[in-house]
TrEMBL record:
It comes from Thermolongibacillus altinsuensis. The lineage of its organism: Bacteria, Bacillati, Bacillota, Bacilli, Bacillales. This is Nucleoside triphosphate/diphosphate phosphatase. One of its GO terms (molecular function) is ribonucleoside triphosphate phosphatase activity. Mg(2+) 1 binds at residues 89, 105, 109. It is an enzyme of class 3 (hydrolase). Mg(2+) 2 binds at residues 107, 109, 122, 125.
Length: 178
C-alpha cells in the first residue's frame, strides 16, 4: 500500500501528462529530498528524460524540483555556474500513485533568470491546446490565476525563489549522491 506522497530518500520517476491523458514526458530518476501531502521536493542530475514520441535525452545540470498539492504549478531550479535558472510549469497539482509522481502539464511556462527577470513562454501553444483539448473555462481561470500567483512569488522571492533556498536543498541532494 502506498502513501499519499513519496518518502524522503526514495528514488522516483516523474511523469508529465497532457490534459487529454496522453503521456508528455517522463524523468527516470529523482531523489525525494522531502515528501509530504502538501509538497514534494526532489533532486536529480543527468537523469534520462523520455519524450512522448520515445526520444530520450539526458538533463545537463543538477536540478531541484518543487511539486505542490495545492498550487497549479511546479518549479524546477536548475543549478548552473552562472546561477540558478528556474523553469516553472503551469500544471495540475501533483498526485502520487506509488508508481510515479504525476501531473498534467498545461503548456504555459515561466522561465526565471538568476537576476529574477522572467519570461512567460508558450502562450500560443497554450491557446492552441486549450481549443484542441477543450480545457474547461474553470481550468483556464485557475491556470491564469496561478500564473499571477507564480509571478507574485518571483517578485517577492517567496518559496523556491527566496535567497539560498535552492542551495540548501542542493546540499541535501549532494548528501544523497555520496
Amino acid at each position: 500500500m502506498s502513501t499519499a506522497y513519496p518518502i524522503t530518500g526514495e528514488i522516483i520517476q516523474i511523469h508529465s501528462y497532457k490534459h487529454n491523458g496522453h503521456i508528455h514526458r517522463a524523468w527516470k530518476e529523482t531523489v525525494v529530498l522531502s515528501g509530504s501531502e502538501q509538497m514534494v521536493v526532489g533532486g536529480n542530475d543527468r537523469t534520462i528524460v523520455t519524450e512522448a514520441d520515445g526520444r530520450t535525452w539526458v538533463t545537463r545540470e543538477p536540478a531541484i524540483c518543487f511539486f505542490y498539492a495545492e498550487h497549479w504549478f511546479n518549479i524546477i531550479a536548475m543549478i548552473r555556474e552562472e546561477g540558478v535558472y528556474y523553469y516553472c510549469n503551469i500544471s495540475s497539482p501533483f498526485v502520487w500513485d506509488g508508481e510515479a509522481l504525476k501531473y498534467i502539464d498545461y503548456d504555459l511556462d515561466i522561465k526565471v533568470f538568476p537576476n529574477m527577470h522572467y519570461e512567460i513562454l508558450d502562450e500560443d501553444e497554450y491557446e492552441s491546446h486549450r481549443q484542441e483539448m477543450n480545457y474547461p473555462d474553470v481550468i483556464d481561470k485557475i491556470l491564469k490565476n496561478n500564473v499571477h500567483k507564480l509571478i507574485y512569488w518571483i517578485k517577492e522571492q517567496k518559496g523556491p525563489f527566496s535567497p539560498n533556498t535552492v542551495q540548501e536543498w542542493y546540499k541535501k541532494f549532494i548528501m544523497y549522491q555520496k
